[in-house]
Design goal:
The complex is a heterodimer. Chain A is an alpha+beta fold. Chain A has two helices and four strands; from the N terminus they run βαββαβ. Chain A has a single domain, classed as Alpha-Beta Plaits, CATH 3.30.70.20. In chain A, 14% of the residues lie in helices and 18% in strands. Chain A has a two-stranded antiparallel sheet with strand order 1-4. In chain A, strands 2-3 form a two-stranded antiparallel sheet. In chain A, strand 2 and strand 3 form a beta hairpin. The radius of gyration of chain B is 24 Å and the shape is globular. In chain B, helix 3 runs parallel beside helix 10. Chain B has two domains: 383 residues, FAD/NAD(P)-binding domain, CATH 3.50.50; 126 residues, Methane Monooxygenase Hydroxylase, Chain G, domain 1 (Up-down Bundle), CATH 1.20.58. In chain B, a hairpin with a 4-residue loop joins strand 6 and strand 7. The longest helix of chain B has 26 residues. Chain B is built from 15 helices and 19 strands. At the A-B interface, helix 2 of A face helix 8, helix 12 and helix 15 of B. Chain B: Pfam families: FAD_binding_2, Succ_DH_flav_C. Chain B: It comes from Lutibacter oricola. Chain B: One of its GO terms (molecular function) is succinate dehydrogenase activity. Chain B: One of its GO terms (biological process) is anaerobic respiration.
């Protein structure tokens, strides 16, 4: 769903900074970007466009959770 | 860990006591493996160890899109100390990164005068535009576009680099990934703002002589348009300190593809990757709710595109009024295709279909947002000044009615943001020169800090994601916010008031990401209340506001904008402001 994977990250944080909805964060151990909140991805591709090494794969699909009675 | 377990057990005990006789069904739920702690909040951070910072400046610019860029640059150039704060990143948040056309009125090249331009916009806007702001945008647009050219704006599809150039040249400090939640007012004028960092776990207070909101518009985090970071934050925090806001009854009518409706990028084809370019005069009447009306009457999805490309087959009688001579030019969506006069930004060769609009489409991709610049703070003059001394707004955060309540001109929205940012920057700098430094009182600091952190401190509550989803279910259906009728607007209002009174005060957050979502959700709920009440009140149809029960334009009663403000008792109040007047105190 939405942002799918990051392969070949160089840890420059461009994607993290450019994500309007705070989907990505830097993993403190690996020092690479990781997809932490994929449910908030708006599929705008800014992260991919800012990535200097073309590491990000995005799918157009999004699993939109069904409406439930509490949450 | 032990502490957490104890807390969980306690909360469960409390819940079971509350649930009383429901213990049997709880046991049943437990038996089928359902967790009983669904509403518990288990913070991942120690809320009591958060840092608190305080920073002072002359002019605080909130937001870093096109309006924020020019607000910061022009306030600095007018001699003020400026600090820019952004929820995201300079040139990469809000709608700016996706706007690819910018209007430049070049008197030497245009075949109409400025006066004629203003008249044409007013004709299309059915009187809803503020002529002063319509004129101002056109008048200043070329100068702003030339500055952008100098900074390299037209050389890349990614705007962070070109936006950084003038900011770095001037050494304007910028703080990114800061969510501002509060404007602060003392002695009847704005004295600063407050918010938090999503990275550094700290609360930040800004003492400022003046504040410029460049916070953009907002929606209900809808699917298919890149506005999920825009939740009317500026409008609602200004409303909370007594600012007048306007334009909540209007709708932006952008659709999305019915297949993978949430995929903004895919819906817009390659447009997001294009370099920006300029547009010239080309008056239109676009992006109201014509298509929502067609879909409502015919059922299901609708087709769009230029006339003769399958669109006529689902044309229905009635619906929103369209002024003569401004026929449908291909419908909403801003597809930069098929324009013979070159008035849209160029698109790559060989990508035939207009972005996202080749097949079936669905409505609501911008749900919760009005036509650009038709909603936001009410300006009291042509300087982007609000009714709160020291508080300015520019771009989509200002209800300038630059183009009125309908899209009249491709590219004018981005130009309007640049122009208004510049105007507000200069005005705020001038205002700041005559004001002594502001101090925020200790009691105010404490009160606001409590409000900011409350969702992190709740032991139980509702998740912002669920409340948002519920709000979307209430507001986004075509029969609620687009094809309006009094009984359903009132029904939706009852649900929204429930969210406001019972759920908004119990939003929970376990980390800084969720804390941002909690505050965004609060703002969306209040904006929904405003939208429904304003829609109920406006008993006519005009531009992008369509009432099925009042389908005609009512010039006798409604040649007026609708302003919203909070009275001293905290109640939402409404007032009419006749078109082309400034508000009374």
């Amino acid at each position: 769903m939405a942002i799918k994977s990051i392969n070949g990250c160089i840890g420059c944080e461009e994607c993290i900074k450019s994500c309007p909805t705070d989907v990505l964060r830097l993993n403190p151990e690996s020092k690479k970007a990781e997809i932490l909140y994929p449910e908030d991805c708006q599929i705008c591709h800014l992260c991919r466009m800012y990535c200097p090494v073309d590491a990000i794969t995005i799918s157009p699909e999004k699993t939109i959770p069904v409406i439930v009675s509490w949450g | 860990m032990k502490k957490k377990e104890e807390k969980q057990q306690m909360s469960r005990r409390k819940f079971i006591t509350l649930a009383g006789g429901a213990a049997a069904s709880l046991a049943a739920m437990s038996a089928i493996g359902m967790p009983l702690n669904w509403t518990e909040n288990n913070p991942e951070i120690d809320v009591n160890s958060l840092d608190v910072n305080k920073i002072s400046t002359d002019v605080l610019v909130i937001g870093s899109g096109m309006a924020g860029l020019f607000a910061a640059v022009k306030a600095h150039d007018a001699g003020a100390n400026v600090l820019m704060v952004s929820k995201g990143r300079l040139g990469a948040s809000g709608q700016t990164p996706f706007a690819k056309g910018i209007f430049a009125f070049d008197p030497e090249k245009e075949d109409i005068t400025l006066d004629e331009y203003v008249d044409k916009v007013s004709y299309s806007a059915l009187g809803t535009n503020n002529k002063t702001y319509t004129r101002q945008t056109a008048e200043h647009s070329l100068a702003r576009v030339n500055e952008l050219k100098e900074w390299g704006f037209f050389d890349s599809s990614l705007y962070n680099k070109s936006f950084s150039k003038p900011i770095k040249q001037r050494n304007i400090p910028i703080q990114e990934r800061i969510t501002i939640t509060h404007l602060i007012k003392e002695n009847e004028r704005v004295v600063g703002a407050a918010g938090f960092s999503i990275d550094e776990q700290k609360v930040i207070f800004y003492e400022a002589k003046s504040v410029i909101l460049c916070t953009g518009a907002g929606g209900f985090k809808p699917n298919g348009f890149p506005i999920c970071d825009l939740t009317h934050d500026g409008t609602i925090m200004a409303y909370n300190i007594g600012a007048k806001v306007t334009g909540k009854e209007w709708n932006d009518g952008h659709p999305a593809k019915s297949e993978n409706a949430a995929a903004c990028y895919d819906g817009w084809g390659d447009m997001f990757e294009q370099k920006p370019s300029t547009t010239s005069v080309g008056i239109r009447h676009d992006l109201g709710v014509d298509m929502n009306y067609t879909a409502y009457m015919n059922g299901g999805t609708a087709k769009m595109g230029p006339p003769g490309m399958g669109r006529s087959e689902n044309t229905v009688k009635g619906g929103p009024f369209r002024p003569e001579g401004l026929e449908d030019q291909g419908g909403p969506g801003g597809p930069p295709q098929g324009d013979k006069e070159g008035r849209r930004p160029p698109r790559k060769e060989g990508k035939g279909a207009p972005p996202g609009m080749g097949g079936s489409i669905v409505g609501g991709s911008t749900a919760g947002m009005a036509i650009h610049k038709s909603e936001g703070l009410v300006p009291i003059n042509d300087k982007c000044e609000s009714n709160i001394p020291g508080l300015y707004a520019a771009g989509d955060a200002l209800g300038s009615y630059m183009a009125g309540a309908i899209y009249t001109q491709i590219g004018s929205s981005l130009a309007g943001s640049a122009v208004q940012g510049g105007v507000a920057g200069e005005a705020a700098a001038k205002y700041s020169k005559k004001i002594a430094p502001n101090k925020i009182s200790a009691s105010k600091l404490k009160e606001i800090q409590e409000e900011i952190l409350a969702p992190l401190k709740r032991e139980a509550g509702y998740s912002p994601a669920w409340v948002t989803q519920t709000l979307q279910g209430i507001m986004i259906p075509n029969f609620i916010i687009y094809i309006k009728k009094e009984n359903l607007l009132k029904a939706a209002l009852a649900y929204v008031e429930e969210l406001r009174d019972h759920h908004l005060p119990m939003l929970k957050a376990a980390n800084m990401h969720e804390l941002r979502l909690a505050h965004e959700t609060k703002n969306m709920i209040i904006s929904a209340e405003m939208k429904l009440k304003a829609s109920i009140m406006r008993t006519e149809s005009r531009c992008s506001h369509y009432r099925l029960d009042y389908p005609e334009i009512d010039n006798e009663n409604w040649q007026a904008w609708l302003n919203i403000f909070k009275d001293e008792g905290g109640t939402m109040q409404f007032e009419k402001q006749p078109f082309n007047t400034w508000p009374t105190a």
